[in-house]
Amino acid sequence: MFRRCNEDILLSTWEGSARRKGRGAMSTLAVDRHMSGNHDHRRRTEMPPHPHGMTLLELLFAMTILAMVVGTLAGLAHTAEQSFEYCEGYGIATQHAQVALDRITRTIYGAAANEQFPGCIVVAETINSWRYSDTLVVWHPSGVAANPSGLPQYCELVIYCPRPNYPNQLVEITAPGDTRTVPAVTDTATWLSQIAAIKTNSQSKIVTLTSLLRSCPIASTNGSALRGAVRFETRLRPSQDDWNNFKNNSVNWKDLPWVQGFYGWQMGQRQVWVRMEMQLIPQAPNGSANAANQVPVPFFGSASVYYQMHRQ
Questions:
Q1: 58 φ, ψ (degrees, to nearest 5)
Q2: Average model confidence (pLDDT) for the chain?
Q3: Contact between residue 264 and residue 171 where contact means Cβ atoms under 8 Å apart
Q4: Do 304 and 272 contact (CB within 8 A), yes or no?
Q5: Could you tell me how far CA 131 lies from the centroid of its own chain?
Q6: Cβ(294)–Cβ(284) under 8 Å?
Q7: ∠ CA(144), CA(145), CA(146), 5° rounding?
Q8: What is the pLDDT of residues 81-128, one digit of tens each?
Q9: Is 0.90 topped by the overall pTM?
Q10: What is the distance between the alpha carbons of residues 256 and 238, in angstroms, rounded to a whole number?
């Protein structure tokens, strides 16, 4: 400290001498200032440097936190991807169901019908006392029906059912070129055999509506045959029994259960209501459980055909 004070006193003295002596003294002052600056610089550089860098413990702690953050973000990304694929699977199943139900509905709306054939019938098969109503037959001619007041031909029928040997597929089957006349609606045995033959005939035209149909074994034993989870039901108003009772003079014309009371003196309106139900399996997300473990989604639909019944 005393040294610093002496240097300041000398500096002041030299500055006064420089003013009196002129340029020579100023040169000496510059030299002294340069020496004093070097001394301050040396003193500053001799100060201990600030600590820098990380210790091994700090580095390990930082790496642990970084690993936790990265793991959390990876888990969130995987969950988001799984959720997207899960929702996408259900969205695709919904689209398949809408396409299938809309196509069946449009066919039913364009059906032909008369007293002998109500436009739509369900060909049900009974196995081990269980009834499987998974085949819908619709009279849907491409133009004018060959016999509008009689029974249709096989080539005028449109069949909806699970595909044989591929129960996970719901298909539309037609038999173009088969001009045979179908049997009466009450001839169940002939209907079963003929429809089964059309399903497996190589000349039949098959259109797949969906391949996501749920398939289930018909028995609890291993190796049991599978059937597609689709069901059709029809209801007639007036029903066939009501109409037969009227023909037998057991029921009056006005007492028949006409739809919304629509009937006249000679004609009444009959309704054929078709109810549809199917179960579809959403596509499994990548890397998750397979489709066999997916929860099936039920879909429902209905359509109606109206036509005139004549009293005489």
A1: -65, -40
A2: 83
A3: no
A4: yes
A5: 30
A6: yes
A7: 115
A8: 666 666 777 888 999 999 999 999 999 999 999 999 999 999 999 988
A9: no
A10: 6
